[in-house]
Design goal:
The chain has 527 residues and is α/β, with parallel strands linked by helices. 51% of the residues lie in helices and 12% in strands. The chain has helices spanning 19-34, 55-66, 86-98, 114-147, 178-189, 195-204, 217-225, 252-263, 265-273, 322-335, 340-388, 394-417, 425-437, 439-445, 448-458, 477-488, 515-525; strands at residues 2-8, 37-44, 73-76, 102-105, 159-163, 169-173, 232-235, 240-243, 285-287, 295-300, 306-311, 319-321, 463-465. The chain is elongated and about 105 Å long.
C-alpha cells in the first residue's frame, strides 16, 4: 500500500521545537511497521486547524485526487492534527473516502471496523470540544483585558504593538504615522475638506499602510470613526466602553467634531460627485421655468469650436452661455457688497455678544465637567454591580448602560461646544468682512470646492435664473440684517442699538449662543 503523511503544528513558535520532526518520525515508523510505502510527506507550519485554506492540506487533497487509485491511506499523528472541528473532520474524511483513501492515526486506534469508526467519531468530537474550550477561555480573557483598558488586537494604523515595563501588552503611537493621522482628524474636523481631499493630502505627505501601500478611502473612513484614536475602547457586543491604558492620537473634542461631520456628510458627498470644475454654478442655479437645477455641458459649432452652456435638462426652457450666466452671478455679488459703516456696526455687536457668551460658558464649563465625572462614576459602579457583584440582571444592566451612554454623549457634546480656544472671533470677523467686500474677486480665484461653499453660505437656498437675470435671491442672514438695518435707517453709532430685543441689526441678536456670532463665524470658516 502507498501512504501519504500529513503533519501540522498550530503556531509559528512550535515550528522551532521538536514537534514537527517528532510527528514526522512517528508517522514514518508507523507506516514502516504496517508495511506501507510513503509516497509523500506534507508538513503544515504554523497554521490553525480551524483554517480551511491551509496550504499543505489543500496540496495533500489535490495530490490524492491526481493520484486516485495509486494511494490508499493518509497517516496523521493524531486526529486533532487534521482538524479541530467535527464538521471539518468528516468533510475531509468523506473527500478521502470518495477517492478510495482511508485515514489512520499513529496515536489513536481508528480503522474501518464499527468500533474503529465509533472511536474516530468520539475522538473528533473531543478535538472540537477542546478547541471550543480554548476559544471560550481566550474570549473571556480578551473581554476582561478590554474592560481594563487594554487593547488585545493587532494595533491599527497609527499605533504599534508594544509592552509596558511589567511585560503587559499594550499599544503606543507610531512616531511615523501618528502625526499624519492626527493631522487627518484636524483637517476633516475643520469642515473644509471631504474625506477624499484629506486622504489625498495625507497620502502626498507619506501616509502608507503597514505594508507600504496606499490607504484606501473605505479604510480611511473607518479610521475616522474608530474611537481608539481618541483613547477609547468600545465594543457594543460585549457592552464595553472604557478609557484605554494607552496614549490617544487625537483629543476628544476633535474626535467628536469629526463624528458630527460624518453623520451629515453622506448626502453632501453624493452631491459633490455631481459637480464639475468647468461649471461651478451647476445644480446650484435652478431653471426659472420649471425650478429644475441647471446642468452644464459643451457644444461644438460647425467650425469645430467648443462652447460651454448652462441649460435645463428637464424643460429646455433655459439655455445660457457659461460666460454670460457667471458674469450675471458676479454682478449679483457686487450688488450685495455692504457699506463699510454697517460692517463696523456689526463687528461691535458681534464682539459684545461674543464676550457675553464667553462669560456664560466659563460659568457652565465646570458644571458640565462635574456632570460628566458623575455620569462616568455611575457607569463604573453599574459595571461593577453587574460584572463583579452580580447584583443586577442583564436586562437592567443593558437598559441603564444605554441610558448612561446617551447622557454621557450629550454632556460631552455640550462640554465640547463650550470650548472657544479654537476660534479667534476677531480674526473670523476680519476674514468675513474681507469676503463680503471682495466676494467677486475671491469667487473668481477660488477652486471649485471653495466656490461651492461660498455660494451655499451667501445663498443658502440657491438661485433661480429666468433667462434675463436672477430672481430676488434668498441671501444669508448676515446680508438680510444689513439690508433691514439700511432700509429702516437705524442709528449705527451706539452699541445699545444692537442689544437683544432691539431693532435693526439687533433684531437678530436674540441669544448670545447662536445667531449673529454663528452667522459671521459661518462666513469666516466655511471655506
Amino acid at each position: 500500500m502507498r501512504a501519504v503523511i500529513y503533519c501540522r503544528v498550530s503556531t509559528k513558535e512550535q515550528t522551532k521545537n521538536l514537534s514537527l520532526p517528532a510527528q514526522r518520525k512517528a508517522c514514518a515508523q508507523f507506516c514502516e511497521a504496517q508495511g506501507w510505502k510513503v509516497d509523500r510527506v506534507f508538513v503544515e507550519r504554523g497554521e490553525s486547524a480551524k483554517t480551511r485554506d491551509r496550504t499543505e492540506l489543500k496540496r495533500l487533497m489535490d495530490h490524492c485526487r491526481k493520484n486516485r487509485g495509486r494511494l490508499e491511506v493518509v497517516v496523521v499523528y493524531s486526529l486533532d492534527r487534521l482538524a479541530r472541528s467535527n464538521h471539518d473532520h468528516f468533510v475531509i474524511r468523506a473527500f478521502l473516502a470518495g477517492l478510495g483513501v482511508t485515514l489512520r492515526s499513529v496515536s489513536q486506534p481508528i480503522d474501518e471496523s464499527p468500533t474503529g469508526k465509533l472511536m474516530e467519531g468520539v475522538l473528533a468530537a473531543i478535538a472540537q470540544f477542546d478547541n471550543d474550550l480554548r476559544a471560550e477561555k481566550t474570549s473571556l480573557g480578551m473581554k476582561e483585558a478590554l474592560k481594563r483598558g487594554r487593547w488585545t488586537f493587532p494595533a491599527p494604523l497609527g499605533y504599534l504593538n508594544s509592552r509596558l515595563p511589567d511585560g503587559t501588552k499594550t499599544i503606543e503611537p507610531d512616531p511615523e504615522r501618528a502625526p499624519l493621522i492626527r493631522r487627518a482628524f484636524e483637517l476633516y474636523a475643520s469642515g473644509l475638506y471631504t474625506k477624499r481631499e484629506v486622504l489625498d493630502q495625507l497620502s502626498a505627505s507619506g501616509l502608507r499602510t503597514k505594508r507600504g501601500g496606499k490607504v484606501g478611502l473605505q479604510s480611511f473612513g473607518y479610521m475616522l470613526k474608530h474611537p481608539l484614536y481618541a483613547g477609547k475602547i468600545r465594543n457594543d457586543a460585549w457592552g464595553i466602553d472604557v478609557v484605554g491604558d494607552f496614549e490617544p492620537i487625537v483629543d476628544e473634542h476633535t474626535f467628536f467634531r469629526v463624528q458630527a461631520i460624518l453623520r451629515h456628510s453622506k448626502a453632501a458627498g453624493k452631491r459633490h460627485r455631481r459637480h464639475h470644475p468647468d461649471f461651478p454654478l451647476r445644480r446650484f442655479v435652478r431653471c426659472g421655468v420649471c425650478e429644475n437645477p441647471l446642468t452644464g455641458g459643451w457644444s461644438r459649432s460647425k467650425t469645430g469650436k467648443r462652447y460651454a452652456y448652462y441649460n435645463c435638462p428637464k424643460c429646455r426652457g433655459i439655455s445660457a452661455r457659461k460666460e454670460a450666466l457667471e458674469e450675471r452671478f458676479l454682478e449679483l455679488l457686487d450688488n450685495l457688497k455692504p457699506k463699510p459703516e454697517y460692517l463696523e456696526a456689526l463687528r461691535e455687536s458681534v464682539l459684545e455678544v461674543w464676550r457675553e457668551r464667553e462669560r456664560h460658558l466659563e460659568e457652565i464649563k465646570p458644571i458640565l465637567q462635574q456632570k460628566l465625572a458623575t455620569l462616568e462614576e455611575q457607569k463604573k459602579r453599574l459595571v461593577e454591580a453587574f460584572v463583579y457583584k452580580q447584583a443586577i440582571d442583564e436586562q437592567t444592566y443593558k437598559s441603564e448602560l444605554d441610558r448612561l451612554r446617551a447622557e454621557i454623549t450629550v454632556t460631552r457634546i455640550e462640554r465640547n461646544d463650550s470650548e472657544l480656544d479654537a476660534l479667534d472671533v476677531e480674526t473670523v470677523l476680519e476674514f468675513a468682512e474681507h469676503v463680503v467686500l471682495n466676494a467677486r474677486r475671491m469667487w473668481s480665484e477660488f477652486p471649485l470646492q471653495h466656490r461651492r461653499r461660498m455660494q451655499k453660505v451667501l445663498f443658502p437656498e440657491g438661485l433661480v435664473y429666468d433667462g434675463g437675470g436672477f430672481r430676488t435671491p434668498v441671501t444669508c442672514l448676515f446680508f438680510r440684517d444689513l439690508e433691514r438695518s439700511e432700509s429702516e435707517e437705524y442709528e449705527l453709532v451706539a452699541r445699545t442699538g444692537f442689544e437683544r430685543g432691539g431693532g435693526g441689526l439687533g433684531a437678530s441678536v436674540r441669544s448670545p449662543d447662536k445667531l449673529l456670532t454663528k452667522r459671521v463665524a459661518g462666513l469666516g470658516v466655511s471655506w
